[in-house]
């Protein structure tokens, strides 16, 4: 006992104990500048109490409900044993299996994309052919209200089914799914996001929503589908269906699963746009933090396979089996090689900025609308009703436009499928009807490729405004639908409008001012302004239009759009992520945080376990706390109130591991067959572990002890309490950590830093200054 | 003193002292499996003694001469002060400056590329026009030896100058420069690699080499030039010219400089191939370890600017100013949209594998040749002579081919610039002469775009063999020349040969078997087989031929080539890197190293400094050791022989920082103006610090002390001695570290791990098994 006291006194200055924390904090506060003082003053109330009301729509509060994924390998004795036993063959087999899984991901994602594609096309054809015929039939009889009501009904019925599916079966399937996939790849466990139920609701839902005529596209949901497919295949089992194929067992951990999901997302992009390179870049730009060449390569492989499968199926569907470069396979149609002149570039940049402005406004409106939805549309039936109302509104707007604007063009000039005459003369068709009586994707193709003079300025102008607002109200509905296509459509329409205007100004410039070219630039500008991606978007647009010579103007446009938009607000995906309070870690640590230290950021006191601990104690801890990781320490040097408070860091153990150990009753006193225990016991339960309430522990069991050493991660990354926030951030981000134990000078655990502690510091612009704001954490959000 | 002893005894088990290391190691050895035992047994002799001879050409020895770059920010008090003082404005300014630098990098890289392009074209035109005319003139007189000797002379003279420049002025400018840039981006300080002298030699050298008719291209050197330009501009000063513009001072550190260099390399690719997206992917695939979105975006920006500038200048040069999508701007010519059928894909894959085989053989031959060169061509004059001989050989081979193979085609069919009649009839020209009498790049264009039946099988066959061997002997000469183009040329030739063969077999398939298509596939296969890149290469080929519809066949070909090639050996760049013994860190830690611990890998005993140390001691340490980083420790707990051996880790200080502190005489006793000291004192000296011998320290100075705390990095990443090799590897790679102090349980420094300690473990395939081999380190290599 004497030597213990001795030790404590000797290291009085070095030991940074729990009791001393608050006084040390004050000392630090005094030594820091005013700026960090103001930071520190708010530090003590980082979690909102339950009676504090969270203002709906706030962007500055993190939700406490999101857990992190764990990308760090637990190098415990079991893993070492496994490696030793299995050797090279196992390694090669695992590697081959990995390639096989990526192959399967590519194929399955493409097949799902094909089904969605073909279903939408077939159903839409029936719908719009009927409508077109009816309009022309009843217009003669003066009973235009009949096709109108048919249009409304044709919109409402599928949307009703789709929205009900989303609202009642799987709410996480709403929207495009890209924000959710982005969060997952960033390391946040979004509940349900990669479940098979989500996949089914998502893919059926997107068909119904698009057929229902909503202003949305199928691309986002396809990307999400790819991610789910990847997560499903790589695990070789489905908990929903309670099937375990017993294959790919070694991929049952967060790290491997993440890799597959990033491949799946890429395959999804690849299937949605026929853009394999764009897919890889998308999964990099939106998700990855650590660039890994071999992973990227496998991702690329999945993308290629996906495009390949898609093209094989679709070429057969289009009646040209095997002709993989059939131009009809390009989603947005094949562009001729545009020529452009250097003096057009500034003009493209201007259009980009304009797109950025429009996009920022779109994001703002959508944000306000989302806040309103969070506040008032809380009931599931209300959500379905809202979706149906918007579907009816879409039909009404469309019908009014073709009814009121008499934009007629002679037949034969435009490759429209269902020419509708409306009030036009014989041998003519109503241009607006041809735009509305097809899927939005087909409309984008029309605007890109219709010959000049197909559309007049007025109809384009009205269309832009109508579609801009419609797409804005549609995104965020309880429907599985994306925003790529409607945004492209809005942009293509105003781009074409610009071309019409230019041709009015310079009637001789017909050779240069091709409306399709301007439609493309407008579409890129609008999309860039809304989603703020650059590299992947450039490549996706290049690939999906089969046009590479136009790369430079596209990139300039996209950069201008992003910069202009970023001046006002965040991209739409990030806005929605912030609305949900997801603790997303940005790419780089915020500035000005070199003088915020681990001791200020960490949670403490920290709950620890001993290397050999009582079952009783473990069960109690699991019941009392919600922590997911526990530092394992040597029996502590001093005890307070007869209870260990801290000790020297020996390892880290996860809640899930403890649960499995308790379930399997791996107690020192009773377990006999130690030989049979391997890493696979944890994989078998992955990813849905029981809760502690579901584990039965008898009173007798509670007397036993557990030796945690074979199971724990024996050398977790840890840092000193004097480490700066930016260093912790880099460590966390680069290595994909979930927990970071903070130790004092003698390697005793004094605190714990998790994702939320780091994500709380966010850069924002405040009156022209860059400041670091501190978010609060709410358990209610 | 008593309490100290007490402490030591209490922690006997925990303290892992220097003296105990060897016995602990043995203990560990016994507890490990046989595999790691064999590893450990060799661990004790990791550095070759000076009398051990390094076999020339070994791939299994690391050179001790390469230092690491330091990407970790030193968050010392000075930096915190600076941040506090300068605030937001400084941050915004720095950010804007960063964009400006990337803009400048793009412009300058493109301008250099343009000069190289235009010089080569002009000089080659003169050369080949003269030759062509001479041949046709002297053939009538029967004096063919005259044009032959002219050809030889025209080859030897520029090559002689170019090789002399490389051999005598800047040897690091030899070759393509891509391996060197790759090493730099990986974090290895390759001496001279980003110096302005290198840039000059490189760009003049490449013009001379290509004009000299060597089987090489200008692309690699252009990429290297981009990297140098980036390093130069971003530093705002040139040590070579002793000019300091006083700008961009804040970028004077390894981390910032690396970012710029990766942008420069991308801009280089972009300028060389007109492939901005390919450029970004290249710099990612070959260099980056940590994916950073904003960096990637700036890299993209530089690439775009580079392509843009290049196209503006070249379009003006070609007489179509401002027409940026003039097809002549595409290096390898614009491809028509090929159609391909699904049943052609397996055939493309076969061709890919064949390319992989040829590539692996090429690499093997080149490796053997390089070893021979290392052994025998050591003298500078010998190097120059060798280059001249190869130049003469190239001329001879070319001349013999056009002399011996009478491949005549009627004029007008082929867009050759200088039709040479040779022995052909009137109105005909010699096809081989038209291939040889132009730059290799132009020959690639010919093979890609010449109409069918331009080349007959025999001439193609001979050409493939000749060029294959020539390009193999050329790579590795003391000339600044790359291998992209000759490899593409070889591949294009055998690809065309395949098409000729196919047309013989299926005479009716003329619609499908376009020789240009097969030339493209062959070129991709050959290049993929030699360099083993996939993603970036696909995109580069797509961009440089303006052809996107052919992406899928290209990717399949490249993957097949890479897999086949990887079965036999490494890519040519990696082989050359291994030959130089550069400690490159691969993407992932080797397998089976979970049970190798820091305590086994680290260097020890470690030389430490105290937080306040005597000048005398510091100078002595700097003189005695070659270490670049020193842990700063608290006054140690026990002393041995009156000398501190280890203590509790407080920070890390670099040799360069110590030098600057000594130079500035920042001694506790004498320095008065502490206020004026800021981080900039270190930046001012970056990157070439004085050696300790150049710092004058008087005997009086030696009595003073230095307080290291304001200068040191106060919270370096450190790990416990029980951390596994794979964890250390991941930490090192993800964070770009240079030094990793190893601590014991009470946070006392017991060892140091550097890049070489980790790079020593390399995966290799040995009789079908994947094993981890341990490399030795040599100070001689």
Question: How would you describe the overall organization of this protein?
Answer:
The structure is a homodimer of 781-residue chains. Chain A is mainly alpha-helical and 781 residues long. Chain A has a domain at 11-44 and 587-759: CBS-domain (Roll), CATH 3.10.580. Chain A has 27 helices and 20 strands. Chain A has a three-stranded mixed beta sheet. A three-stranded mixed beta sheet of chain A has the order 15-16-17. A two-stranded parallel ribbon of chain A has the order 1-20. In chain A, helix 4 packs antiparallel against helix 8, helix 4 (77-141) packs parallel to helix 9 and helix 5 (145-169) packs antiparallel against helix 7. The radius of gyration of chain A is 29 Å and the shape is elongated. The model of chain A is unreliable at 1-45 (pLDDT under 50). Chains A and B meet through helix 1, helix 4, helix 10, helix 11 and helix 19 of A and helix 1, helix 4, helix 10, helix 11 and helix 19 of B.
CATH superfamily caption of the domain at 11-44 and 587-759 in chain A: CBS-domain
Q: Helix/strand/pairing class of chain A, anyone?
A: mainly alpha
Work out the radius of gyration of chain A: 29 Å
Q: Tell me, rounded to a whole number, the average pLDDT of chain A.
A: 83
Number of helices of chain A: 27
Q: Report the top-level CATH class of the domain at 11-44 and 587-759 in chain A.
A: Alpha Beta
Share in β-strands of chain A: 5-15%
- CA(first)-CA(last) distance of chain A: 49 Å
Question: Might you state the CATH topology name of the domain at 11-44 and 587-759 in chain A?
Answer: CBS-domain
